[in-house]
Amino acid sequence: MKKNRIEYISDKSLEELDTATESLFIYLKDKGDEKALEPYFNTKEIEHMKDVKGLFNGGYTIKFLSLLISTIILIYSIVNRKVEIGKGFF
After folding, report:
1. C-alpha to C-alpha distance for 1 and 60, rounded to whole angstroms
2. φ/ψ (deg, to 5) at 53
3. Best CA proximity match to 24, nearest among 42, 44, 41
4. CA distances to 1, 16, 57, 59, 60 from 64, in Å
5. How many Å apart are CA 71 and CA 40, to the nearest integer?
6. What is the pLDDT of residues 55-82, one digit of tens each?
């Protein structure tokens, strides 16, 4: 962080930045609400983070559904002998 002079630009110590980052990760992982962000971010930034959190949650949902559908297709193909494990890979 010293390379980018983030401490100088943000006028925050490295410890404060680490704490703010941890609070942000907790918020994005659904382990806390926006009150955890209030000491570090203004109202406009918190509103933006609500949108970002929605995008993160949408991405996680798409990832989970993709994995589920892929697993179902693979199991269906194996059960119906449409795919022979190893034959198509080597």
Report:
1. 29
2. -60, -40
3. 41
4. 34, 34, 11, 9, 6
5. 42
6. 999 999 999 999 999 999 988 888 887 6
pLDDT for res 85: 62
Which pLDDT score, from 0 to 100, does residue 69 have? 97
Spatial distance between the Cα atoms of 83 and 90, rounded to a whole number of angstroms: 13
CA 70 to chain centre: 21
With residues binned 3-state (H G I as helix, E B as strand, rest as coil), the percentages for the chain, rounded to 5, are 65, 0, 35
What whole-number percentage of the chain has pLDDT above 70?
88
pTM above 0.70, yes or no: no
CA distance 86 to 90: 6
Query: Which residues 6+ apart lie within 8 Å of 26 measured at CB?
Result: 32, 36
Please give the Cα distance from 36 to 56 (Å, whole number): 18
